[in-house]
Amino acid sequence: MSIDIRSTHNTTQGKTQGPNLLGSINAFNRLANDPLQLFYSLHAQYGDIVCLNLGFQKVFVINNPLYIKYALQENIKNYKKLQRLEMQTKLLFGEGWTNKINRQIIRPFFEPQHYATMDSAIANATQKMLARWQTFADNHQSFDVAEEMMRLSLSFTAQTLIGHDFHTGLDDVALAMQTIINHFNATAVSNFNVPESFPTPANRKYMAAVQTLQTAIDKIIEERRDNGTNKEDLLSVLQSWRDETGTGLSPKLLRERLLWILLPAFEPIGRALSWVWHLLSLNPNVERQMQAELVRVLGDRQPTFDDLPKLNYTKMIVQETLRMYPPFWVIGREALEDDEVGGVHIPAKSMLLFNIYGVQHNPQYWDNPEGFDPERFTPERARNRVGAAFIPFSIGPRACLGYNLSIMQIQLVIALVAQAYRLELVPGHPVEPAAMVSLLPRHGIRMTLSQRI
């Protein structure tokens, strides 16, 4: 599916534009079906700021990078995360710490000096996957690369963050993770959700997946405590943390903090990698330029993090993929107090939806936004980018701490896979984005392999 937002006119100064009450309610109910197309239609008709007046609440959909930057960076204190998402994830992540405390404690782990030791774990996980792919190549068998990338991302993210890739239990944990993500996706787009304690088949499946995941994490925590292994990973950081009274984290809080980091860390990487192979298959000229860079920089040897600064074109492929298919396609906030954005009055308690996908496909800020053009991320072309026109991992104090690390991990996997195989889309298989909690391929991405000679 291709979304092209042609109309970017501003709202009338000081006035709010949008459908009437009935139209607003109808639009809000359509969010579950095709929000990308809905937002496109709303912005084309009403402009950069669209108000859905639901009677009991106003919802503002925003498609302007300057306005987004204002709310997420310049006046961040007035906009908090939506409570609905926090309630949705409470069972897994708990509510023991504030977001500010979490970020203060884990921030040092995401400093660049910690990255260099991670490339071997990523390479090992990728090589295991590539060895398994030999069967696909030998039998000319198609497979879902989106599923493979999610499994790979879970493996090396767990290894780099908690020093454990679940070993023989990876399949069970990956299935549990996917069930949990599916549950989040379903509840995020539904206007009515049955409480998780009510034993519907879907809830029972979700609760069983939560139990599988929690048990796996508890086992890793117990093994680390008994063995006393001193590793430079996030689990060690959290285990050694003490508050002002000298009290550390309980096993339950430790597990919740690990899951709070692990789940949001591995999914965007897996999604982005999935879209990379889709786009490279559709754009063979880009793939050839990337291959030329890999040969020039690496020759026949395996890449490491030290090589990544020289793989500039590969990095631009990652960035352009994140522009076209941002994992976090929309960001939601609630206004704490009255404010004014773009000349529009924002009442307290209003909901704001920042249309990240829309902004990153907006021709006012991007030439040929539906075209796959990695070179738009050269320093010369990126220099005059407006506001928050490219923020696939948010912006400001609440932006993803692992953004730079994620780029490097994706870059490294691309190089490792592309040295071994060329991936081609299965003709006729439908590939379209589904805007759930993240932007995922609705029907997967089926591909076949051919080995590099």
N- to C-terminal distance: 34 Å
Q: What is the strand tally?
A: 12
Most strands sheet: 5 strands, mixed
**Uncertain parts:** 1-15
Rounded to an integer in angstroms, the radius of gyration calculated over CA atoms is 22 Å
Separate helix tally: 17
Keywords:
three-stranded antiparallel beta sheet, alpha+beta, globular, five-stranded mixed beta sheet
Structure in words:
It is a single chain. By secondary structure, this protein is α+β, with helices and mostly antiparallel strands. The chain is built from 17 helices and 12 strands. The protein has helices at residues 21-29, 35-46, 65-74, 83-88, 90-93, 99-106, 119-138, 145-162, 170-188, 201-227, 234-240, 251-282, 284-298, 312-324, 356-360, 379-382, 403-420; strands at residues 49-53, 58-62, 79-81, 143-144, 330-335, 339-341, 344-346, 351-355, 421-425, 433-435, 439-441, 446-451. Strands 1-2-8-5-3 form a 5-stranded mixed beta sheet, with helices on both faces. The two termini are 34 Å apart. Residues 1-15 have low confidence and may be disordered.
